[in-house]
């Protein structure tokens, strides 16, 4: 029990002292996760809007595929991309394995189906009511589209936050594609795994506190947006 108390005390000291390695790991996690989430949102939101509001054959099947991909195992994504990006892989000449770029690509693949599926489901339930109402009031196509996006903004924000929450806490992609390189690709989850295996719990607990705090804030934000929406 004493070693747990000592580890927690050490973790508090690391956080309060703003240890450089601790801050570097946190900023690496935030930078990579925010970048991948942004790119996933740029791709996933228009795709989700198309799936949710479009009328085409195979729409339900495509929605089912997106829902299935939401639970895509991170190690499967990591293994697949590793096989493509390794020296013997077809994209090995790019030389991006064990770099933040590879981690961003892996996390983008994880976040995309979540953002797209949530956006599609939300806008499908929203329907065309705002567009029809706007056109009945004489609004042109541009203003009707602005009204629709205003009605859908909470759905889009919630979808994006859910995507960020997915990638910020993942470990499989980060470990396999980033290599856990100190001061370069080591993020919160990979650092926790490393420190635990070494028996150095103070830094791991400090990082765990940050991870839980960010996850908690994301969930609170999602809950607040959903409550405002209802």
Features of the shown structure:
230 residues; mainly alpha; MetI-like fold; 10 helices; 80% helix; 0% strand; globular
Our estimate of the beta-strand percent is under 5%
Largest beta-sheet characterization: none
How many structural domains can be distinguished in the coordinates? 1
Secondary structural class:
mainly alpha
Please tell me the CATH architecture by its name.
Answer: Orthogonal Bundle
What can you see in these coordinates?
It is a single chain. The chain has helices at residues 2-17, 20-53, 59-69, 74-85, 100-126, 129-136, 141-168, 172-178, 188-198, 201-229. It has 230 residues and is mostly helical. It has one domain: MetI-like (MetI-like fold), CATH 1.10.3720. It is globular.
Quick summary of this structure?
The protein has 230 residues and is mostly helical. The chain has helices at 2-17, 20-53, 59-69, 74-85, 100-126, 129-136, 141-168, 172-178, 188-198, 201-229. Helix 2 runs parallel beside helix 5, helix 2 crosses helix 7 and helix 3 packs across helix 5.
Topology:
Layout: H1 2-17, H2 20-53, H3 59-69, H4 74-85, H5 100-126, H6 129-136, H7 141-168, H8 172-178, H9 188-198, H10 201-229
């Amino acid at each position: 029990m004493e070693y747990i108390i000592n580890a927690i005390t050490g973790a508090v000291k690391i956080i309060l002292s703003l240890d450089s390695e601790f801050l570097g790991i946190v900023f690496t996690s935030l930078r990579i996760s925010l970048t991948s989430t942004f790119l996933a949102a740029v791709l996933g939101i228009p795709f989700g809007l198309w799936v949710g509001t479009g009328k085409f054959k195979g729409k339900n099947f495509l929605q089912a595929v997106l829902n299935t991909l939401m639970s895509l195992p991170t190690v499967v994504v990591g293994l697949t991309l590793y096989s493509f990006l390794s020296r013997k892989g077809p994209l090995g000449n790019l030389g991006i394995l064990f770099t933040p770029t590879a981690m961003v690509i892996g996390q983008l693949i994880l976040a995309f189906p979540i953002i797209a599926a949530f956006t599609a489901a939300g806008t499908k339930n929203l329907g065309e009511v705002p567009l029809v109402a706007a056109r009945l009031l004489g609004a042109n196509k541009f203003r009707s589209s602005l009204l629709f996006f205003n009605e859908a903004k909470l759905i889009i924000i919630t979808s994006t936050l859910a995507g960020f929450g997915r990638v910020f806490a993942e470990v499989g992609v980060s470990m396999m594609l980033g290599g856990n390189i100190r001061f370069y690709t080591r993020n919160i989850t990979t650092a926790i795994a490393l420190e635990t295996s070494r028996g150095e719990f103070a830094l791991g607990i400090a990082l765990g506190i940050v991870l839980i705090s960010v996850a908690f804030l994301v969930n609170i934000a999602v809950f607040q947006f959903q409550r405002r929406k209802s």
